[in-house]
Amino acid sequence: MRTRLPTVLLATGHGSVDLYQGMVPVLVPFLVAERGYDYVAVTGFVLAATLLSSVVQPVFGLLTDRWSMPWLLPVSMLGTGTGTALIGLVESYPLSLLVIALTGVGVAAYHPQAARTARAVTGGGNVGMSWFSLGGIIGFALAPVIAAPLLAVGGLGLTPLLAIPALLGALTTIPLLGRGAARATAVRRTGRDDWASFTRLTTIVVLRSVVYVGLTTFVGLYIGRRLDLSAAASSAVLVVLFGGGVIGTMLGGRLANRWTRLPVIRVAYAGAAVGLAGIAFVPGPVLLVFVVLTAIALSVPFSLHITLGQDYLPNRVGTASGVTLGLAVSAGGVVAPALGALAEATSLQVVFAALVLLPATACLLAHRLAEPA
């Protein structure tokens, strides 16, 4: 019971941050409908939300490796909410990019400290970390449930109401800001850092991120056009995607406890490659089955990346967390404009066919990793 409440609070806070990561793809059909942006323009929003986050996230990781900074948790939540809330109030494209970038900074500030705190609270176990990760996945899953109906009724002008979850999430972190939380996340030097294995793991994380960002950005538009759906219904497809992510995240920790982490990761990425091939080539509503398969397969390794990274770098837990947790939701945005350009030059089907190669490569790289000593 002593660790259950902090874990629940951390998972809730994680959800309130990643909720806004999930809202960016939800906004895409409405930005296209109301402002006439093309594929390249809307992927610019994904880039703005993720590029700055990718650049500054290691800095926050280094800072939390030196000092305990629990106050970053509520501050970063408020930043993510503010950035998304303002997107409907600014008219120019550059200002829109700027406020979305604020969301990325909030994400960068949140994840290293949150993952360090989660490791301290849960002991770094696979199941405990999967519960923490589940909060983020649920946040993603709730984004279309919360945002799509609201935007369908009032359009982008109602985005200020989307700041409410950030405020509620910040309030849940107050019990974690005392001296107990600061002591729990104090830096402890243990073991030897294995940078070679961590570099391979980082490559896998980046590959997953590119696939996941490409999937969340384009799957609504792709299936909407394949099945002739409205903008609101296209955004609702993300519920299927994120729902599969919830299942995969919960499975990850339990499967790893039974068969260890790396075999589970290898099988998951092989399954993701099959799922993406189905999205690209299988016709009709059966597409949704492959969306679920892909979502589950991509989410199974999510929490396992975090514990592996922290075990590979036991003396740099903040840095490891910033990469494996934060980079997992930001690095793909750097490649998103290239995916948009590919879609403009060819088709979204070609984009999904190309993405098949990435989880296949991640599977091969995972065969070169060993469990940390």
TrEMBL record:
- Determine if Transmembrane is one of this entry's keywords: yes
Q: Give residue ranges for domain Major facilitator superfamily (MFS) profile.
A: 6-371
Sorted keywords for this record are:
Membrane, Transmembrane, Transmembrane helix
Question: What are the GO MF terms of this UniProt record?
Answer: transmembrane transporter activity
Under the heading Gene3D superfamilies, the entry gives: MFS general substrate transporter like domains
* GO terms under cellular component: plasma membrane
- Give a yes or no for keyword Transmembrane in this entry: yes
The entry's localization annotation reads:
Cell membrane
Q: How does it sit in the membrane?
A: Multi-pass membrane protein
Q: Coiled-coil regions in this chain?
A: none
* Transmembrane portions of the chain: 39-63, 93-110, 131-152, 158-177, 198-223, 229-252, 264-282, 288-308, 320-342, 348-367
Could you tell me what this protein is called? Major facilitator superfamily MFS_1
Q: Which organism is it from?
A: Kribbella flavida (strain DSM 17836 / JCM 10339 / NBRC 14399)
